[in-house]
Design a protein that fits this description.
With 101 residues, the chain is of the alpha+beta class. The protein has one domain. A four-stranded antiparallel sheet has the order 1-2-3-4. It is elongated.
Amino acid sequence: MPRGRPSNFISMTFGRLTVVALSNKNPKSGRYWLCRCACGNPENKEVRGDNLQSGKVASCGCLLTEVREGRLPGRRVGRPAAEAVAQQRAEDPLYRAMNDF
């Protein structure tokens, strides 16, 4: 492994995931780790180490569910967000003036 990267992630936390053990999954594409989510999901999730470090995987899937249901303030996704942006543009006189050019 390159210098500066830990080779043992056990007990480290990445987002909502805490690494509990090294997985038995075939490591051809990188090391996989068993992680437990802070949401209380009883199943461990197998995650590749580089995805943990980069932040690509931050939960067992509960975070995406919360974002979709709107339980996390400040995050918008999907059609309602697009409609809100379109409404703001329609009401903004500067944006309407830009369409004349």
